[in-house]
Amino acid sequence: MKTIGYAAQSTTTPLAPWAFDRRELRGNDVQMQIQYCGVCHSDLHQARNDWGWSSYPVVPGHEIVGVVTAVGPDVKKFKEGDRVAVGCMVDSCQHCDQCDKGEEQLCRHGNTQTYNGKDRITGEPTYGGYSRDLVVREEFVLRMPDGLDMAKAAPLLCAGITTWSPLKTWGVKEGSRVGVIGLGGLGHMAVKLAVGLGAHVVVLSRTADKEADAKELGAHELLVSSDKAAMKAAANSLDLIIDTVPVKHDLNPYMTLLDIDGTLVIVGQLGPMEEMSTLPLLMARRRVSGSPIGGIRETQEMLDFCAEKNILPDVEMIRMDEINHAFDRMEKSDVRYRFVIDMATLEAPAA
Ligand SMILES: [Zn+2]
Ligand SMILES: [Zn+2]
């Protein structure tokens, strides 16, 4: 089927309108019309090939919400008109131990990325949510709960699940003590979700100027990481730290904030890290870990939780043709806290 979207045709060209084909429906496929798509940092990085694995054209977008427009004959869970969502992956092997556990993001054979990936059957490139229509096998389609605002919910599909998964993996609950480093797209969701789970939430920031923002998001405290006395006083005060800062930085100052058996989880792709001292790890059995998105079951659980608790990202709505400007602003962290594209503004390329 013919569709339209926005694509980067090379590392140096800005995103521009592009007409392309989606596959015809397979038996277990769901076809949706996209209403909104969130703008993630990885969209920018892959459009510009910052990670070295982009294959062009790249149609970014993996925070996708919309409405079902058609289903294949074997689809059981969805019908035309259903409100649905798709996140960072659209397929996996479906039979390894990780897929069996519902951790498709850790599939032994690799999951299929929503864009800049390869279809498992035909090997064709996958194209993401900066487009009008999407075709995805039903196992990777999420149900949008009633009452969840479609216009604001899109960033839950990457920023939301990426911070929800470590909160659940490390058992955050009422009374847990959670630190969040960085107040961007991911960080602001980490705060809202941890608060929703009943945790005491501390935002860690180099300066005090984000205190009002942190509190507005529901955080209980802001700890200034450049304030040595305050950092010392906060030693052993956290069970989990979620580190969302997407550039190389020194983890050492944060480690002693963790209590015994506490964990610092990195959710951004930083590349090589600064040297780390083993002493804080040894002295209190502290850990450093990483965490990618989350599984499909976990993503549905997160969407249902957000509907129940009325948790939504703070978004700035843009038109499709504002995307290149939005990328520039995102690079300067000039967004509160996530851009979302209104896909009704997508126009076909000039003939
Ligand atoms: Zn993302
Ligand atoms: Zn698998």
UniProtKB/TrEMBL annotation:
Q: What is this protein called?
A: NAD(P)-dependent alcohol dehydrogenase
List the residue ranges forming a coiled coil, or say none.
none
- Which keywords describe this protein according to UniProt? Metal-binding, Oxidoreductase, Zinc
Gene Ontology terms, MF aspect = oxidoreductase activity
Supply the InterPro entries for this chain. ADH-like_C, ADH-like_N, ADH_Zn_CS, CAD-like, ER, GroES-like_sf, NAD(P)-bd_dom_sf
In its keyword annotation, does this UniProt entry include Chloroplast? no
Q: Which organism is it from?
A: Brevundimonas staleyi
Stated EC number for the protein is: 1.1.-.-
Q: Which cofactor does it need?
A: Zn(2+)
Q: Which residues form the Enoyl reductase (ER) domain?
A: 10-341
Q: What is stated as this protein's family in its record? A: Belongs to the zinc-containing alcohol dehydrogenase family.
Question: Would the keyword Oxidoreductase be found if you checked this record's keyword annotation?
Answer: yes
For this protein, the record's Pfam families field holds: ADH_N, ADH_zinc_N
